[in-house]
TrEMBL record, chain A:
Gene3D superfamilies: ABC transporter involved in vitamin B12 uptake, BtuC. Keywords: Cell membrane, Membrane, Transmembrane, Transmembrane helix, Transport. It holds the Pfam family FecCD. It comes from Teichococcus oryzae. Belongs to the binding-protein-dependent transport system permease family. FecCD subfamily. One of its GO terms (molecular function) is transmembrane transporter activity. The keyword ATP-binding does not apply. CDD domains: TM_ABC_iron-siderophores_like (cd06550). The chain crosses the membrane at residues 12-35, 75-95, 107-128, 134-153, 165-187, 259-285, 297-315, 327-347. It comes from the Bacteria. The keyword Flavoprotein does not apply. One of its GO terms (cellular component) is plasma membrane. This is Iron ABC transporter permease. It is found in: Cell membrane.
Automatic annotation (TrEMBL), chain B:
The keyword Nucleotide-binding applies. Keywords: ATP-binding, Nucleotide-binding, Transport. Belongs to the ABC transporter superfamily. This is ABC transporter ATP-binding protein. It comes from Teichococcus oryzae.
Amino acid sequence: MILPPGRPLARLLGRIVLHGAWIALALAAAILAGVCIGETAIPVGTVWRTLANKLFDAGHALDRIDQGIVWNYRLTRAIVAACCGAGLAVSGVILQSLLRNALADPYLLGISAGASTGAVLVTVAGVGAGAVSLSLGAFGGALAAFLLVALLARASGGGVGPRAAGQIVLAGIAGSQLFNALTAFMITRSASAEQARGIMFWLLGNLSGARWDNVGMAVPVAVAVTSVCLWHARALDAFTFGTDSATALGVPVRRVQALLIGCASLATAVMVSIVGSIGFVGLVVPHAARFIVGVRHVRLIPAAALMGAMFLIAADVLSRIVVKGQVLPIGVITALVGAPVFALILVRRRPAR
Amino acid sequence: MMLAAHDLGWSARGAPILRGVSLEVPEGETLGLIGPNGSGKSTLMRLLCGVLKPEAGEVRLAGEPLARMSRRRAAQWLAMVEQQAETADRITVRDAVELGRTPWLSPLRPWSAEDDAIVAEALAVVEMSGLAARDWATLSGGERQRAHIARALAQRPRILLLDEPTNHLDIHHQLSILQLVATLPVTTVVALHDLNQAMSCDRLGVLQHGRLVALGKPQEVLSPALLRDVFGVRASFLTDPADGARIIRFHAVS
């Protein structure tokens, strides 16, 4: 049964290079657009020259302010947006596939709410006394929320099968409500008016704080999570007919579930800790991607990552230009765009039966 | 022995489902498992393929304990066709059958022309080649069952486990699937509901209240006494004038 891996492996490598190249190109174009478009439009040439100056010390003569805006604000913002979009979309793909539920996404299953609670616990309530970072708090909260939701779903008769699909969504709603209430409780109790306003803004999703240290966090996480999922693409496919079927197909189900759900929680937690909780990306983008490239994860995961990245960059651009002189929370944009698109997909994908 | 179970036991929420089941299946045999509803057939099937871990006893594949094999290696040995495995995903028949190659592939051992050939052959065996591009949602129950069997065959297993493969099918498809199973060149364990259909197996195991109460040739196992004790029916045996085969007719015990 074991074949000489020469030709198929070479073909695989070729495919990775080819698709990797155009995905990188599309991503770069999206980021470039995200940098150029804004309340003050910045010409592409200025962006190029800034990049050349910063990366290769090209020494172009440029307006210091323009250069600062491009390098320190717009570029970091666009990159963080891309990473968040990709991370959340891939998390959505994982959860939808492993839980066999089209409605699963980090937001709906309470993971985002848990991450918010964790982050607020650290920043406002001062848990960990400075030793625990906001991201770590968000990660802990995300994991706690997911465990709680998973246990609740199991206790309510979940597990496998079509009934469990409904149970985990109900459990997720309960979990979200609980963690949102905890967050609100802590904010009203401990936060000053100034802090509270800032946190509420952050909770709705806000990219304006994105700087290079956030980029250093978001890029590795997004790349790592996407790669791990891509590595397990075949295992994710094997869940098509449920967990028992996956076991019978030779997938170590528990291990794969733990690893990939851990990845989804990590990605969500890190993204929420940087930009707040942004809904709808993890739900809508995987469905849109499936609509275009089909259900096989080898294609679905890169497609979802790319579309998530582009979607969030576009949403961020919109959030900056829709209302003059004001930046809308990005969560508002993703939901305003995402909900109708999702409705459209629901209607168009109505099963034939 | 190709497949051996020794003293298997399993319980759900404290209630014993299966107790002390031992059986051996030699290479090439078709073993039928019969028993009333809730007698533990499905549980035994799931233990045999390793989806469930036995609480007591062990399963061995060609002498090697199943519990010590990796999932991947176990899946290269045995394939399972579940009673009802459904999906809401938009996949084609070919997609479903290609899943059978999962235990043979890895990121470093990608899909090859040989896998294409194996999938095409599996589709041909179940006579689904013409339907390969069809949407899963448009298939009838019988077509889905045949696609599941093709998926299991694409796994190239040495042992095939089928849990009531003829459930919910019309009589034509029941017969064609049983005929198909009988001709497959692998060791097979098949849980069945229809006792007349079970007559065509090489040997039969009878489960009652989680215990294996009989194991042997169909003619010896399916005695009037066993049918009364296990299934609660009175049976009369008829002979089909067409081919001389024995047929059981069932009556309620009055």
